[in-house]
Structures are given as structure tokens and as C-alpha cells.
Design goal:
Structural class of chain A: alpha/beta
Number of strands of chain A: 10
Number of helices of chain A: 9
Largest sheet of chain B: 2 strands, antiparallel
Radius of gyration of chain A: 18 Å
Largest sheet of chain A: 6 strands, mixed
CATH topology of the largest domain in chain B: MetI-like fold
Number of helices of chain B: 31
Oligomer: heterodimer
Helix content of chain A: 25-40%
Distance between the termini of chain B: 28 Å
Strand order of the largest sheet of chain A: 6-7-8-3-9-10
Radius of gyration of chain B: 29 Å
Strand content of chain B: under 5%
Shape of chain B: globular
Strand order of the largest sheet of chain B: 1-2
Distance between the termini of chain A: 34 Å
Structural class of chain B: mainly alpha
Largest interface: A-B, 46 and 30 residues
Helix content of chain B: over 70%
């Protein structure tokens, strides 16, 4: 179970990205995080695996306070927390295989990995994950020769290599053609349902939230303004989260 | 602007201010930049005139100099007056007056004597004849064969006692003479350039990570290391390879090893800076992603940073290799080893045919290096995407990979031997070395030394200025002939284009230091000879850059002007010139910056300026004073670097 308690992040330039954010995520949930760009969604995601250091507050993951861990302990903990990014963040010039294997780095011997050595078990696991995402025939091409949707699937395969209990997906479909959104989110849903991986996913479109998430939280200017079931987001809720100017858009 | 009636009094006041102190009127009118510019300009001009009259024999033009200066002063009064009345100002007139003074002084200071070019032309014909008939082949009994000199430069086969391994293999008797290939000075030069690049990469890559802000900010205390490393690289880089050579020679003695080391040290700093900038410009996304998997810092560097930086690193390394090969041809002037050392020796003996042969050898090798490096760089930066469906084999598993590996190792071993690398020498510096370093750091700042050094430094700056002007002026018309888009019209013009390009390429492949010998023979030792040598390299480099700028112009306007029925000349004036003047000026300023660096070393071959002074101090063992010279060079080069970058930034 993930428990976020009174999380606050103030950047060195004075911007307050998160104000006193508290919420809980049960194991196996698909939690959607919604809000405008700049509302603190990305900061929240990155505070959970401490890619960004929170200013105050606690993050309890399976009873461990992540904010109290040393950098080395945090690295070990990150193995359980996969991450998927808006810009995919693949190493473009490396092969798909190397990108996927990189998800194993937290497990393998640091010295062997420096020479690009991974065990045959890891190779097999990588191929299995690629197959699961329909990319088995792309294993040895360069990552930048793939389309955006394919690159994001490589990103998910990389996260799966960590054998995570939690996946943080930061706007996983925002850089993709809308028609590809469902394909990517279906994969995430599959991981959530079949493997029981908890998913935290920030999304723009309400349709997608309704379709995929089991619960949602709404962020506005770093504060939680909504917590509840996706179906509970009515027009008033919508305007509180996205502002009076906002209009609903439908995607497919 | 301001109506003249209400401001005529204001204008008079401004004029009076400017009459008392140049620039004061402009400052009074709140034109701060202009006022300060005029004030600094006037002070600098007055100082220069005074300095030149005190140090050089130029009474003949003293009056004229002060007269132009007075005109500049008057222009400034006039300028303040017109500025106040809101009338158009004549900026170019003021600039012209300042330029007249600067060039008149430069002319005298660099000892320019055009008549010597004519009166002594007969003498230099020997050298030109040698250039056309270099000593590479001799005719013997009707057949041509490589001359003795060819063997010295390229290599030859001589009978030597058999080496042990040949005896042990049973292929030769102990002590028997077997034909052994002995490589010449040019091969040594290539080895020096290759080894220096190789060694520099090994050191520059790790150093560059310490000089990259995005990496060091992830490490506790990293910011301090970052600033220290950056400063270190900048200081090392601002000292020229040749000057490093002077210092290294004291450490490890004269020879190829000293040359290799000098090149290596300068390359480490230059590459380290370029590499670190490349590391700073990488995409942070993959770093974030790899960190999120639980990887440690080393793994993040291995999987997120290194794959991103390999292509730019390779490109910069190839560029550096090109530069190192050029520097390897001259480092021998001070450090011994390579073709530079050979040139010094042959000139001392007056062997101009041998010198000419060396120049041709250098030209061929450098043109080749230039071509390979440019082609390879273009291929890397194009970055083709290789698509294959199968797992790639490791490179050593394929026959081709194995071939390159073996060849690489063989070349490496040969270069190691030719560049006489002897790491033990590093640990056993000559006993004087410690004293030298101590003397060198405790620089002599007494007024006499400082004045002498400053005098030669100014000569060097003027040398560079005049060489840039002369070379640049000659390059302008020539660059049109070397521009493919203008010359591609007919077979005849195409021939002209190829000839022009070849002339530029050949001239460009030889370093200024190697040209100095010709001009020393022609016009005598001194700054004039150095200036002419610099002008030749400037002509070649600027000519290439200019012609490329012409080739890169937008064809649209040319078409439009030609469509109006304009003649060829009119098209050039109205469609091409407006497009190429900004890059031309920018290149010229950049070239002046480069020329100042090179001008600091032409003195080692008799080209005058601060290099001559440095050479003298070193040979007289006055290391305190040599330290002063080096410190002055570092400061001036850094200042010029900064100023030229700023000016070019504003122009673009």
C-alpha cells in the first residue's frame, strides 16, 4: 500500500509545486491523477520515487518511509517502482534490447553491467516482455527507428523488467497520437489486472480516466481538489479541477 | 528627435564638453555606450601613438599621426553637436580616422617594407625554384629513384644487423645484415599526431565528466570540482602547444616524446572542454528513466549518458586529430621530433630543396588527413539508422572486425615506437626541471621586463591584424573563383574553380610556422616575415570559408535580380554581397583571434614578435621572464577570445 502524507515540494526558485498533499493507494488500484499542466502531477510522481526530493511530508510504501531512506537504500527500493514517461525517455541510439535490459540495472552486478553484460535469464525475460508488448521482432533495431507508440511500449517493457509492484506513469499518452492512447493504456490495464501491479497514471482526457481508472485524484495548483471514483467527476467537479474556462473534449 | 530650435544651446554645450574630453558630450546626451566608446577609443589611440613614437623610429610620420588624431577629436565634437540636434551622425568617418591611425602604426611596428619584396625577389627565386623541383627524386643513369632526402622524409630501407626475433626464428644469422625499413620524419610526424590524440582521449573523457555541470550537480561537493576543473581546462588550453613544448623539453629532453606530450597536454584541455559541453547538452530524459530503475551513478553514466555522447565525441575527436596532425608538423621547432625538427635543421644548413620537399610531404599528408576527417565526421553526424532483425554479433567475431582490430594494434605499436614514448622519463625529470618550474611560476613583473614583453605583445597583435587584413583582402576576389555555384557554369570556369580550390587546399595544409622560412629568406628576420607567413595561411583559410559562405547563399535573390535583366556584376553587387558581408566580417574577426595565437609562435622561426622574445628568454635560461611572456600571452589570448566571441555574437 502506498500512503502519501502531507507532501509538500517547494523548488529552489520559490515555486510551490505541491501543498500538503495526502492520499492513499490500495494494492492493485489503477489511480488516475488529473489536472492542468503545471498542477504538480509530474512533481508528485517524481517525489514518490524521489527523483525529486520532497521538501516535507512522508511517503510510506509497504510500511517503509521512503523519505527516510539513504540514497543507496532508495536505489534498492526503486526496483519495485517502475516508471513510464511522457517523452518515453529511451536512449535513442541504443538498441531496443539494451533499452529494455536497462530496466534490470538495479538488480545486476554494477561491474558486469558496465560492460553491457546481462545474464541469459535477463535476455530471455527481456524477449518475453517485448513479446508481451508485440515488439519481439524489433528487439535489435535502434530505438529511434521506432514510431512513438512503439517507443512507449519499449518504455513499458523497460519498467516491467524491474518486476515492479507499482508503476508510475507520467502522462504516458500525452505525446502520442490520440488513436494510440487506448493501445498504450490497455497494456497498462493488462499489467494492472493480470500482474496485480498498482498503477499511478496521470492523464489529460476525462474519457480515458473513466475508461481505465478505478479511482482518481484531481490536483490544482499543487493541492488535492478531488478524490473519489471516476464516475463522480461531474461538471462542477470538472470546473473545480480544470477551471471555469475548461470544456470537455471527447476522444474517440 | 529633439527639435533643433529648443536644443541648439544644448548642442553647443555638448560640443564644448566633447571638445574638453572626447565622449563627454555624448555622455551628457545620455548616449552612454557611444560616449564610453569614444573616450576609450581616444585614450587608446593616444596611448598607441605615444607608445609607437617612443619605441620605434617613426619621426617621419609623427606629425601626421597626431594630425589624424586631432581630426578624430574634431569629429567627436562635431558628432556630439549633430547628435544633440538630432541630425544623422557620420559614424563611419570616426571609425575610418581611428583605423587610419591603427594601420599606420601597425605598418611601422611590424616593419613593413614592400620594396624588399621586389628588390630581393631575385634571391627568393631559388626557394621558389626549389618548391617546383623539390628534392624527392634523383636521376641516375637515365632512371629516376628516390633521393637521400626522400628517405629522410618518408622512409628508406637500410641494411641493419638482424634483430633477435629474426635470429630466433632461424631466418637470419646472428649479426648478419638484413634490409630493414626505417621510417622517416613524416612518418614520425603522423605517429606524434596519432599518439597525442589517442592519449588525449584517454584523459579527456574522464576529465570531461568532472567538468560537466549536469553530472557534477548529482554528486555531493560536485559544484566545487566542476568550477575547479573548468578553470584548469581553460588555463591549460590558452597556452599554445608550442609553448607547452618549451616547458616539456626541459622535463623529458628534446625528441618526439616531448612533442607528443606537448600536443597531448593541449589536446586534453581542448577536448575536455568540448566533451564536457557535449555532456551538458544531452537529453536529460533517459537519465531520469535509468535512475528510476534503481541504477547507481556509474550505471546511469554507462546506460543514459555514454550512448548519447558517442557520436559527438567521435566527431570532435576526428576534428582534434586533424588539428593535432597539423600541430605535429611544427611542434618539432621547439620540442624536436617530426618534420618540424627536420625543417629547422635543413634551413639552418640552407637546404631549400630539402625544405621544399618537406613542405610537399606535409601538404599531401595533411590534405589526406583533412579529407578523411571531414568525410568521417559527416558520416557520423548524419547518423544512419541501422535496422536489423537479429542480435548483432560482437565485433571481434566477424572477420572484418578482427582485421581492423589487428591493424589498429599494429599501427598503435608502431606509433608508440616512433613517437618514442618513454613513461619512465616522466618520473625522472632533468634536475633543472624543478628549478625551471619554480622560476617559471614566480614571474618577473619588474617594469623593464613588463615593458619589453608588452612591446613585443603589441607587435604580435599588430602582426595578426595586418596579416588578417592582407590575407582577407586577397581572399575576397579569390573566394568567388573558388565558389562552385558561381563557377559551375561552363567547363572553363569549372577548371578555374578546381584550380582555385586546390591552391587554397594546398596553402591551407601548411602551418604558418613552416612558411616563415621562405619569408625570412625573402625579407629578412623580423615581424614582417612573420606577418607575411600569417597572411598566407589567413588567405587560404579565409578563402575557403568565404567561398563556402558564397556557396551557401540563398539562390532566390540571385534568381530574382538576374530576372530583372541585371548583368553578372550587378547580380553580385545586389544579390550576393548583401548576403555574404555579415559572415565575411564574422570570419575575419574570428581569424584575427586565431592569428594572434599563431603570431605568438611565429617568432620561433624568425618571424619576430613575442615568440622571438620567449625563445630568447628560454635559451638564455631566464625562466622568470619567460613566465612573464607566457602569462601575458594567456591574458591577451583569453581577452581576445572573449572579445571576438562577444562581437560575433552581436553580429549574428
Amino acid at each position: 500500500m502506498l500512503k502519501v502524507e502531507n507532501l509538500t515540494k517547494v523548488y529552489p526558485n520559490g515555486t510551490v509545486a505541491l501543498r500538503d498533499v495526502s492520499f492513499e493507494v490500495e494494492d492493485g488500484e489503477f489511480l488516475a491523477v488529473i489536472g492542468l499542466s503545471g498542477s504538480g502531477k509530474s512533481t508528485l510522481m517524481r517525489c514518490i520515487n524521489r527523483l525529486i526530493e520532497p521538501t516535507s511530508g512522508r511517503i510510506i510504501w509497504d510500511g517503509t518511509d521512503l523519505t527516510a531512506l539513504s540514497p543507496a537504500e532508495m536505489r534498492k527500493m526503486r526496483r519495485q517502482i517502475g516508471m513510464v514517461f511522457q517523452q518515453f525517455n529511451l536512449v535513442k541510439r541504443s538498441s531496443v534490447m539494451t533499452n529494455v535490459l536497462a530496466g534490470r540495472l538495479g538488480y545486476v552486478s554494477p561491474y558486469q553491467s558496465l560492460f553491457n553484460y546481462f545474464s541469459s535469464a535477463d535476455h530471455a525475460r527481456a524477449l518475453k516482455n517485448l513479446e508481451r508488448l508485440g515488439l519481439q521482432d524489433k528487439a535489435y533495431v535502434r530505438a529511434d527507428s521506432l514510431s512513438g507508440g512503439q517507443q512507449q511500449r519499449v518504455g513499458i517493457a523497460r519498467a516491467l523488467m524491474q518486476e515492479p509492484k507499482l508503476i508510475l506513469a507520467d502522462e504516458p499518452v500525452a505525446s502520442l497520437d490520440p488513436v494510440l492512447s487506448h493501445s498504450i493504456l490497455k497494456y497498462l490495464e493488462q499489467m494492472n489486472k493480470e500482474d496485480g501491479i498498482t498503477v499511478l497514471c496521470s492523464l489529460h482526457f476525462l474519457d480515458l480516466v473513466h475508461r481505465y481508472s478505478t479511482r482518481a485524484i484531481g490536483l490544482k495548483e499543487g493541492k488535492i481538489v478531488f478524490q473519489g471514483l471516476p464516475q463522480e467527476i461531474d461538471d462542477t467537479q470538472f470546473k473545480t479541477i480544470f477551471g471555469q474556462e475548461a470544456e470537455r473534449v471527447t476522444i474517440l | 528627435m529633439n527639435p533643433p530650435s529648443s536644443h541648439s544651446q544644448n548642442a553647443l554645450l555638448a560640443a564644448v564638453f566633447s571638445l574638453c574630453i572626447p565622449g563627454a558630450g555624448q555622455l551628457y546626451l545620455r548616449k552612454r555606450e557611444r560616449g564610453i566608446g569614444i573616450l576609450v577609443g581616444a585614450l587608446a589611440l593616444a596611448y598607441l601613438i605615444n607608445w609607437a613614437l617612443a619605441n620605434f623610429q617613426m619621426e617621419a610620420i609623427a606629425l601626421w599621426l597626431w594630425l589624424v588624431f586631432a581630426l578624430f577629436w574634431l569629429w567627436n565634437v562635431f558628432d556630439a553637436y549633430r547628435l544633440a540636434r538630432g541630425q544623422t551622425t557620420y559614424d563611419r568617418l570616426g571609425l575610418l580616422l581611428a583605423i587610419v591611425v591603427i594601420y599606420a602604426i601597425g605598418w611601422q611596428v611590424t616593419d613593413i617594407n614592400p620594396d624588399r619584396l621586389i628588390t630581393r625577389f631575385k634571391d627568393v627565386q631559388v626557394v621558389f625554384k626549389a618548391l617546383v623541383y623539390p628534392d624527392l627524386f634523383t636521376q641516375e643513369g637515365g632512371s629516376w629513384r628516390p633521393s637521400e632526402n626522400f628517405g629522410d622524409i618518408i622512409g628508406k630501407v637500410v641494411d641493419r644487423p638482424a634483430p633477435d626475433w629474426l635470429v630466433q626464428l632461424g631466418l637470419a644469422q646472428k649479426g648478419a645484415l638484413v634490409p630493414t625499413p626505417v621510417l622517416g620524419k613524416m612518418a614520425e610526424t603522423v605517429a606524434i599526431g596519432l599518439m597525442a590524440t589517442f592519449l588525449a582521449i584517454i584523459f579527456a573523457i574522464p576529465l570531461s565528466f568532472f567538468a560537466a555541470h549536469n553530472i557534477m550537480s548529482r554528486v555531493p561537493g560536485g559544484t566545487v570540482i566542476y568550477y575547479a576543473m573548468r578553470t584548469f581546462l581553460n588555463v591549460v588550453r590558452s597556452v599554445d602547444t608550442i609553448i607547452w613544448g618549451l616547458i616539456i623539453v626541459v622535463w623529458v629532453g628534446l625528441g618526439s616524446f616531448a612533442g607528443t606530450l606537448a600536443l597531448t597536454i593541449h589536446s586534453i584541455a581542448a577536448l575536455g572542454k568540448l566533451y564536457s559541453e557535449e555532456v551538458e547538452h544531452i537529453d536529460p530524459g533517459p537519465i531520469e528513466a535509468i535512475t528510476a530503475t534503481g541504477a547507481n551513478l556509474l550505471q546511469v553514466i554507462r546506460y543514459a549518458v555514454i550512448p548519447q555522447i558517442v557520436p559527438p565525441f567521435l566527431a570532435y575527436t576526428l576534428l582534434r586529430w586533424d588539428i593535432n596532425m597539423r600541430m605535429a608538423t611544427v611542434v618539432g621547432f621547439v620540442a624536436g621530433g617530426g618534420i618540424g625538427f627536420f625543417v629547422v635543421e635543413t634551413i639552418r644548413k640552407g637546404g631549400y630543396e630539402q625544405y621544399a620537399a618537406a613542405l610537399w610531404a606535409v601538404a599531401i599528408v595533411i590534405i589526406l588527413v583533412d579529407y578523411v576527417s571531414a568525410k568521417w565526421r559527416a558520416r557520423i553526424l548524419a547518423g544512419e539508422v541501422k535496422v536489423s532483425a537479429e542480435a548483432p554479433k560482437p565485433f571481434y567475431a566477424s572477420l572484418r572486425g578482427l582485421f581492423w582490430l589487428v591493424l589498429g594494434l599494429a599501427v598503435f605499436a608502431l606509433c608508440w615506437q616512433l613517437s618514442e614514448i618513454d613513461l619512465r622519463k616522466l618520473l625522472e625529470p632533468s634536475p633543472t626541471f624543478v628549478k625551471v618550474v619554480r622560476d617559471f611560476v614566480a614571474i618577473d613583473l619588474s617594469p623593464e621586463t613588463f615593458d619589453t614583453v608588452l612591446k613585443q605583445m603589441l607587435v604580435t597583435i599588430f602582426q595578426a591584424l595586418l596579416a588578417t587584413t592582407l590575407g582577407g583582402l586577397a581572399a575576397v576576389p579569390f573566394s568567388f573563383l573558388a565558389a562552385r555555384n558561381l563557377m559551375g557554369g561552363s567547363a572553363l570556369t569549372l577548371v578555374v574553380y578546381y584550380v582555385a580550390r586546390s591552391v587554397l587546399n594546398v596553402l591551407r595544409s601548411i602551418e604558418a610556422l613552416l612558411y616563415v622560412a621562405i619569408f625570412v629568406f625573402w625579407v629578412g628576420i623580423g615581424p614582417f616575415a612573420g606577418m607575411l607567413a600569417l597572411a598566407i595561411t589567413t588567405f587560404a583559410l579565409i578563402g575557403k570559408l568565404f567561398s563556402e559562405a558564397i556557396e551557401n547563399i540563398d539562390p532566390g535573390p540571385t534568381e530574382a535580380i538576374a530576372a530583372t535583366g541585371a548583368t553578372g556584376l550587378q547580380t553580385i553587387i545586389y544579390a550576393i554581397l548583401p548576403q555574404i558581408i555579415p559572415p565575411f566580417v564574422s570570419y575575419l574577426i574570428y581569424q584575427w583571434d586565431i592569428n594572434i595565437r599563431i603570431a605568438t609562435i611565429v617568432g620561433f622561426a624568425g618571424g619576430g614578435g613575442v615568440g622571438l622574445l620567449l625563445n630568447t628568454y628560454f635559451s638564455m635560461l631566464q625562466y622568470h621572464k619567460a613566465g612573464t611572456v607566457v602569462a601575458m600571452i594567456v591574458v591577451v589570448v583569453a581577452a581576445m577570445d572573449f572579445a571576438s566571441a562577444k562581437i560575433r555574437e552581436r553580429m549574428v
